[in-house]
Specification:
The complex is a heterotrimer. By secondary structure, chain B is α/β, with parallel strands linked by helices. Chain B contains 13 helices and 12 strands. Chain C contains 13 helices and no strands. In chain C, helix 4 runs parallel beside helix 13. Classes of the chains: A mainly alpha, B alpha/beta, C mainly alpha.
């Protein structure tokens, strides 16, 4: 069977056994990477998520840093500068300019009370971002504690706790916010006179009741998710295996449950931020949000509605910004999910 | 060529993933005659299933046929449109999948899913279709067929569902049945029953079977020919006897050493094949098995071994054969 | 099945009762009554008013009286709108909200589901990307922004559609678009991801291997499985939407239940708040029961216990 003429020209040396080192070189092992490293690598590759992150950082800089050295403040009412269009000056300001003084332009114009709109929008974003972030943390803590207790206890405790979540879902949130803000009026005002609690005055009791309502109402989804995740993991074979190998409860929680839940938790929390901002803007729009003169993006939009025909930009700017913030957080959340939670992909 | 039911020549197929080109099939050639049983053996990722799916035109999305010809029952699969392929699928060639638990649509009754394929490929009346569905269930050994037809997949056991899958596959009496690891997900006792059923039906209906498995034990009992695949190549092809008694490739030999035998002496250990499968993103330029082979030689690392024929049907590509040849010639 | 429904309804009654009780006591724990804000009410007149509505009795007595009446379908009279019962307010306002809300949910379903399917089928292609971008923006835009944008462009600038109130069919267009916007985007995303999930299932491979056309694979085998998450979402969505959106009703001046509810809250019209809350909770709970039953019809694997 000499159908291969090639083998006649072959060198005998080629048929000597290959050494182990030579064989080693062949095996191209791809580096095994840790969960975090792998996730970060995937996240960095995701252009949409990175752009969203950049947008969020930019908005945060504008909201938290820029106002501290901006020439106007959010409550300062400049007489004679009411309802200016973007990049225009009032007569008084033009005079000052003539006199050689430097007048910082009203980049986004002013509102009907003569307040610089750019700084109001920045402060509004600050309020919206704070609400989003604080609410997300509150929801994360309350929801995951509640959910994990329900999952670990199981039995009737679990059933009872989940019923509570169902009931909480059914109570109208606006009702609670209004009731709370009435109920908290006196205690909070008393508290705000106590040194160290002055910030309550600035935030306004509405905003504080919003936080409390978040802590009371909106963790239901998070709790359900954490519970189902833990129940699923509790049933999973590798946890059974770890238990069979004699791992302690603490080790199982730390090593298996936490590492497997954390991706989902990060993602859910990130996606919670835009939905909290959404709710805040909605409540501010109804006049149930932050206290005047403190603006939030929702209240700015709400105020601008009446002048919609003459000054549409007063509405469009906060509306656009709020959509941009929510969009960026949503896209970042999607990116995080793809990177850290491959189970939930697509 | 025309005496072959299936004839695959020099098939090359790659998946273009974001990480790069995965060369899933590298020059795969084999033939199946009518009524013959071919076993395709290999570990996960060796290209067994990809070969079968490409024959049905079911290659999944980033996959692309790059070369070679696929002929089946007088059709040139390469040139067929999706519409033409649909007429063959389920009628001339059928497939049963590995996991019967997930291969049936959970929201439709068994009857619905059997009748569907009959409605599509035959012009039988409603009553005839119903009668045929009952007949099919009886054929695959399911009791109370009338009742079963009204049940949903989740109400049946795994073995039952695989029987249903077989019934669906055989509904139009195909020329070729592709069985993609049909018993892997089943209990051992059920495995034997399903294999027995398949052989029985083969004799009854006279179809050819392409049996894909990673279990040499399965192919030994039922196949006429066996193709051993490794990293997208057929490394050895031959009759069942050739493969079991005269293996010519080190990988085949390794596979055989790793199956338990009834006649083994006491204390004789099974020999596993060490190492991990090759990275299909960066296939080695020499023999893909080289890094795991005990008898690996210098040339194995550099070049692919040429195909060497030992009989009309038995061939293999391993440098050890060349070595033997060379030493034989030198003597 | 009947037993299951009975059990679910029993649980629903308990839930509604708990919500009603909770609301009742929460509302009454808050300092200040409904008549405090009205100026120039003499202490005597206040007493008379409170006596008329039974607000002078101890809280638990008020509660028992209220619950008894509520069981008979009597939610009392409005404290602020003289001469109107709570039931008559709900029955006059709810149909308005329900009509707009119901239409909006229909729009969202029949636009969102096909868009999601198309997107999943063209995964990674231009069509998919366009749909994803629109849907992702859709869930990022608050409803008051949509409302005002619509009003500004279609109503004010172009003058195509009337902006306020409900008269002709033209009046319905903008509120429905505004209400349907978010759920449409949400359903599109939900449908896309569940469709992608289903398309990767083994039974889809089976249906293809049978030789079925793409149309049959998609509409018979994929759609029914992929639509399950949308069905789950549809229940609460329907309950929320038909009960009226405060924002949309406020901006477009629609006399619906949502606006009524908000003004009753700010006016502290206790009986209206209570009645509406119970009504909305009932709606919500019933919707969930309906969803569970529909789910059972679509997915035979679900066992109703």
């Amino acid at each position: 069977m000499k159908e291969n003429p090639l083998n006649m020209q072959l060198d005998l040396d080629d048929f000597l056994p290959a050494s182990d080192e030579e064989k080693e070189n062949l095996v191209v092992m791809r580096d095994s990477v840790s969960f975090w490293k792998d996730g970060m690598r995937r996240l960095r590759k995701n252009k949409i998520a990175m752009v969203s992150l950049a947008v969020i950082v930019l908005i945060m800089i504008c909201a938290f840093i820029v106002p501290s050295f901006y020439p106007y403040t959010y409550e300062e009412q400049i007489k004679g500068s009411e309802n200016l269009a973007p990049m225009t000056y009032s007569a008084a300001e033009l005079e000052r300019k003539e006199a050689g003084e430097h007048v910082f332009p009203h980049i986004l114009g002013t509102d009907k009370m003569g307040r610089d709109y750019a700084i109001r929008v920045m402060m509004g974003s600050r309020v919206s971002l704070i609400v989003g972030l604080v609410a997300a943390v509150i929801i994360l803590v309350v929801g995951s504690v509640f959910g994990s207790i329900a999952a670990f206890c199981g039995g009737w405790v679990d059933i009872l706790m989940m019923r509570v979540v169902d009931i909480i879902y059914t109570i109208p949130d606006v009702l609670l916010i209004v009731l709370l803000s009435f109920a908290l009026k006196d205690p909070l005002e008393r508290l705000s006179t106590v040194p160290g609690f002055g910030w309550i005055q600035i935030l306004g009791r509405n905003l504080i009741s919003i936080f409390i309502v978040f802590a009371l109402l909106y963790w239901g989804g998070m709790a359900r998710m954490v519970r189902s995740q833990i129940l699923m993991l509790k049933e999973s074979e590798y946890v059974t295996a770890a238990r069979a190998l004699g791992a302690s409860a603490g080790r199982i929680i730390k090593k298996h449950l936490l590492t497997n839940c954390i991706g989902t938790l990060i993602v859910t929390t990130t996606l919670q931020i835009p939905s909290s901002i959404f709710t805040e803007s909605f409540l501010s729009f109804l006049g149930l949000g932050v206290a005047v003169p403190m603006p939030s993006l929702g209240s700015l939009a709400s105020d601008a509605i009446n002048g919609l025909n003459t000054y549409p930009y007063l509405l469009f700017i906060p509306a656009l910004l709020i959509s941009l913030i929510i969009l960026s957080f949503n896209l970042l959340g999607d990116g995080l999910r793809d990177a850290f939670d491959p189970k939930m992909k697509n | 060529m025309s005496d072959y039911l299936v004839s695959i020549e020099h098939e090359r197929l790659s998946f273009f993933t974001p990480a790069g080109e995965v060369k899933a099939l590298n020059d795969v050639t084999f033939h199946i005659k009518e009524g013959e049983v071919l076993g395709i053996v290999g570990e996960s990722g060796s290209g067994k299933s990809v070969t079968a799916y490409s024959l049905m035109g079911l290659t999944a999305h980033p996959g692309k046929l790059l070369g070679g010809t696929l002929d089946f029952n007088g059709h040139r699969i390469n040139d067929m449109t999706e519409k033409e392929m649909r007429k063959i699928r389920g009628k001339e060639v059928s497939i049963i999948f590995q996991d019967p638990m997930t291969s049936l649509n959970p929201v439709y009754t068994i009857g619905n899913q059997i009748r569907e394929v009959l409605k599509l490929h035959t012009d039988k009346s409603k009553a005839e279709i119903q009668a045929r569905a009952v007949e099919l269930l009886e054929l695959v050994g399911i009791n109370e067929p009338q009742k079963r037809l009204k049940q949903y997949p989740h109400e049946l056991s795994g073995g039952m569902r695989q029987r249903i899958m077989i019934a669906i596959a055989l509904a139009c009496e195909p020329k070729l049945l592709i069985a993609d690891e049909p018993t892997t997900a089943l209990d051992v006792t059920i495995q034997a029953q399903i294999l027995e059923l398949m052989m029985e039906l083969k004799d009854k209906l006279g179809m050819a079977i392409m049996m894909i498995t990673h279990d040499l034990g399965v192919v030994a009992s039922m196949c006429d020919h066996i193709a051993v695949m490794y990293a997208g190549n057929i490394v050895e092809y031959g009759t069942t006897d050739d493969i079991f008694y005269r293996p010519k490739h080190e990988y085949t030999k390794g596979l055989i050493r790793s199956i338990p035998r009834m006649d083994s002496k006491e204390h004789e250990r099974l020999v596993p094949i060490e190492g991990t499968p090759v990275d299909m993103l960066n296939p080695p330029k020499g023999c893909p098995f080289a890094s795991r082979c005990d008898k690996c030689m210098k040339i194995c690392l550099r070049e692919k071994a040429p195909v060497m024929h030992f009989s009309d049907v038995h061939y293999s590509s391993c440098w050890m054969n060349q070595k033997a040849e060379l030493e034989g010639g030198n003597k | 099945m009947a037993k299951y429904i009975a059990k679910r309804l029993g649980m629903a009654v308990v839930t509604i009762w708990l919500v009603a009780t909770l609301t009742f006591f929460l509302m009454n724990l808050v300092p200040g009554g409904p008549f405090l804000s009205e100026k120039a009410v003499s202490p005597k007149a206040l007493e008379a008013l409170e006596a008329k509505y039974g607000l002078d009795k101890p809280l638990h007595e008020q509660y028992i009286t209220y619950m008894k009446d509520a069981l008979h379908g009597d939610f009392g009279d409005s404290l602020k709108q003289r001469g109107r019962t709570v039931s008559s307010i709900i029955t006059s306002k709810f149909p308005v909200s329900a009509k707009i809300g119901g239409l909006a949910v229909l729009v969202a379903f029949f636009v969102g589901v096909p868009l999601g399917c198309v997107s999943a089928l063209h995964r990674g292609k231009v069509t998919d990307n366009i749909i994803i971008v629109i849907a992702t923006c859709g869930i990022a835009v608050p409803s008051f922004v949509i409302c005002t944008l619509l009003m500004y462009t279609l109503g004010v600038k172009l003058g195509w559609l009337p902006t306020l109130g409900l008269g002709t069919w033209k009046h319905y267009i903008m509120p429905i678009i505004a209400l349907a916007f978010y759920p449409t985007a949400y359903i599109t995303r939900l449908m896309r991801s569940s469709m992608l999930d289903v398309l990767g299932q083994d039974y889809m491979r089976t249906s293809k291997a049978k030789g079925l056309s793409q149309f049959v694979c998609l509409f018979k085998h994929a759609l029914r499985n992929a639509i399950l998450p949308v069905v789950t979402y549809l229940g609460p969505l329907l309950a929320y939407t038909v009960s009226g959106s405060f924002i949309v009703e406020k901006i477009f001046s629609i006399p619906g239940l949502g606006r009524e509810f908000i003004s009753s809250i700010t006016n502290r019209d206790y009986t209206v708040i209570m009645g509406t809350t119970i009504f909305l909770a009932t709606l919500m709970v019933l919707m969930n029961v309906v969803v569970d039953i529909v789910y059972k019809l679509v997915d035979p694997r679900i066992k109703l216990k």
